[in-house]
Design brief:
- The chain is built from nine helices and no strands.
- It is an all-alpha fold.
- The protein is elongated.
Amino acid sequence: MATTPKAGLVGEQWLVPGSQTLYVLMPELYLAYELGELSESETFAAIERQLLAIVTGAMTDLGVGDRSLADDLVQSLHERVATMGAGARFDPLRTTPVPYLYGIARMLIREHLWRRERPRTVPHEVMGRVPTGTSQLDRAVRKELLEELRYWLDQLSPGEIRALVSEFGPLFDYSPPKGRRRRLRNPDALPRALEILRELAAHQIEQ
């Protein structure tokens, strides 16, 4: 299943034959392609096999037994590598390519589990029609939003947290976990946190 770069993303950011990202993260395949030892289609197939092995290994490590998710997660890994500029961010002094990609795969799997195990009490698109006041439904919606907000805030840098505080004030008593390790950059975290904060702010005004 070959992956074609989407419009708006530089081809060099993708794990595709001849790209800078392939050179950085899968140097053996890059060299084999450049030397003519592998055709373009063979290189695509080899990339897919390596990513599938990384994804299935991460799924096993996290106790995810549903192998039907593997193909979708491989596609998500392709896209995340490109959107986060993983090739440019890779630091060979801190890690090697396979553990680096493995870490990104684990992050994607955790996001999938979060979405599956913590569904919204009320769908996002009907939030504007939720009754105001102190109903149980209203409190449940707020609780779910705050829990999801904390999940995304945990993935932001200190600078991003400060920017949100300057715009929204105290973030509902949120404080970053002490001694947390620096995570791989998740490009979805800041937009999603902003969306929820605006939703909570609007909901508070309505009340």
